[in-house]
Amino acid sequence: MGQVLVLNFYKLTLEYDGRFYHGFQIQKNLSTIQGELHLALEKILLSKRPDFKVKSIGSGRTDAGVHAKNQIVKIDLPFEIPTEALIKGLNALLPLDIRVKGCETCPEDFHPIYHAQSKIYEYYFYNQKRDCAFLHGKMTKFNFDFDEERLQLAMNQFIGKHDFANYQCVGTEVEHTVREIYSFELKKFPSLEDHVFYSEYPAYYCMSIHGNGFLKQMVRLIVGASLNAARSKIKIDDIKESLNNPQVKKLGPTAPPEGLYLSRVIYP
């Protein structure tokens, strides 16, 4: 009789700079976060179980160019390994723009997507006249002025339970498009005067959105609509109408990916 395969399950917390990747999910012939993680795991398995097929489940499929501060990933291994050793081993093999921040054992039935209660995304941007080389790919630069109070007013319209059919990527397959937004806050940060590059860093903004779930490109479409309202390109009531009577009509451009961060995934 063959030896029974005993699996051990681990919950990883990753941070990554998504600029040079085609999103989180593995894609054939494209560089992705999940793909790099699997390559590192395969190297760890090489001396122990080279025949074992690596599997992982992430808490969200961040798009190309999108970053994560705390992406949760479940993996299973055919042997037991101390969590600190797994962190050290993976970080030695992963590219420097992908880091394992934490690791803990988890039950077999833990699912990073289905067990998540809510998620927090953050969108960072600045709007000074010139580009900042040090922020390229890390924040979005907008070439326009806007009304901060009007921006927060526009953002407030998204709070609550709504049908977000107008705020999803075309072709997305989901059971329904109703989601609940718990909070949506605008924060302004002054120039980083205590930073070594302080003369190069401008003041910047963060739009922090907390909800029970998000459709594909939903956050970036919400950001685009909110900024359009802040520039008086559309009315605040246009946003209300888009949520009360979805017509699959976009109220603004899809905000660029480089400003978006998966900030936190919240579990019970």
Structure description:
The protein has 268 residues and is an alpha+beta fold. The chain folds into two domains: 98 residues, 2-Layer Sandwich (Alpha-Beta Plaits); 149 residues, 2-Layer Sandwich (Alpha-Beta Plaits). The protein has five helices and ten strands; from the N terminus they run βαββαβββαβββααβ. Strands 1, 2, 3, 4, 5, 6, 7, 8, 9 and 10 form a ten-stranded mixed sheet that branches. β2 and β3 form a beta hairpin. The chain is globular.
Topology overview:
Layout: E1 8-16, H1 33-45, E2 56-58, E3 67-77, H2 83-93, E4 98-105, E5 118-126, E6 140-141, H3 148-156, E7 160-163, E8 178-189, E9 204-211, H4 218-230, H5 236-244, E10 260-266
Parallel strand pairs: 3-10, 5-6
Antiparallel strand pairs: 1-3, 1-4, 2-3, 5-9, 5-10, 7-8, 8-9
List keywords for this structure.
268 residues, Alpha-Beta Plaits, 21% helix, 10 strands, 10-stranded mixed sheet, alpha+beta, 5 helices
Task: Summarize this entry quickly.
This protein has two domains: 8-105, Pseudouridine synthase I, catalytic domain, N-terminal subdomain (Alpha-Beta Plaits), CATH 3.30.70.580; 118-266, 2-Layer Sandwich (Alpha-Beta Plaits), CATH 3.30.70.
